[in-house]
Amino acid sequence: MSLRNRSGQKKRKSPGRRLFWATVKRRALRVRHLGEYLAVRLVMSFIQAVSIETCQWGSRWLAWIAADVVGVRRKIVLENLLIAFPDSSLEQRKALARRMWEHLLLMICEIAHAPRRFHETNWQKYIQLNNRRGLVRALLVPKPSVVVTAHFGNFEVGGYVTGFWGFRTYTVARPLDNPYLDAYVNNFRQSLGQRMLPKDESAEVADELLAEGGTLVLVGDHHAGSRGVWIEFMGKHASCHKALALFTLLNKAPMSVILIKRNRGPGCFDIVLADQFDPEVPGNDELRGVTELTQWYNDVLEREIRIAPDQYWWLHRRWREAPPERKRRKPRAPRPAPEPAEQVRPAA
After folding, report:
1. For 245-287, how does the pLDDT look when each residue is reduced to its tens digit (9 = 90+)?
2. CA distance 157 to 194
3. What's the per-residue H, E or C state across 81-113?
4. Kind and range of the H or E element at 321?
5. Taking a C-beta distance cutoff of 8 angstroms, is the pair 100, 238 a contact?
6. Fewer Cβ close by (within 10 Å): the C or N end of the chain?
7. Which of 206, 173, 203, 200 is nearest to 188 (CA)?
8. In this structure, are residues 229 and 239 in contact, taking their beta carbons and an 8 Å threshold?
């Protein structure tokens, strides 16, 4: 119950008292962040001490606990899977959700092992390049370029490996709320040449980098809210940031959709150049608008995700309420695709 003075008005805290409690909250938050950081470093140290095969075994059991016992974000995951695979059964969606959690947990283990696993003499043992010449051309083009990826496969290892090969890229990402963890993650990301740009208020810096002929990497499946451009993804309206298409069209920068997928087993990947668009190449006039280009790269992402849906982050709230004027428009019918159980490759 709040304290009141004799006139019935609520007493206000003195400036000194407000400052005291603000200081207490700030220090408590700092202690919490430090505790989270130490816990993560302890877990990562344990992961690095065991083999990647042991990590895979542990990821499978922890995935069962997360998906079937605890039900972490179960409602959102199953709803998203129902949107993408409307003809699938509940059991098929639950099985796919379990494989998604196994992928996410194994992804963390692969990140922990990456600095010790990949070397100049052995990287070809673990990484295969799909369209090697096209990938090198996309990353070494002597003009500005835009690379689009998604929360699919192990995109963190992808950024690490491109830096390992000497490609200088600039990746836009949202800083973590925990400053200690943010510094720890960015140290891994930037250890071999990749440079990180904060998601907010980085448009001017990105324009300057493109003007200097740099390569900008962006994750293309973030929800952009009511101010984004509305396209269709997996047969339902989704909001996307306009910046990706604008960076390409205004700077005449080729856009490449590049993804990294686990293939033969844990720690083994395919780097796939899924498709490219160059605004300076004649033709493809239908892609010279923001909406059209945004729809194009989302179609490419959808095609690749449907090949290995267990490697996509279905726990994101990718689909949200569309603007009223778009509700009257009927979405395109989703592309015919096999049942999840038939098209998912094993995570191992």
Report:
1. 999 999 999 999 999 999 888 989 999 999 999 888 887 778 8
2. 11
3. HHHHCCCCCHHHHHHHHHHHHHHHHHHHHHHHH
4. none
5. no
6. N
7. 173
8. yes
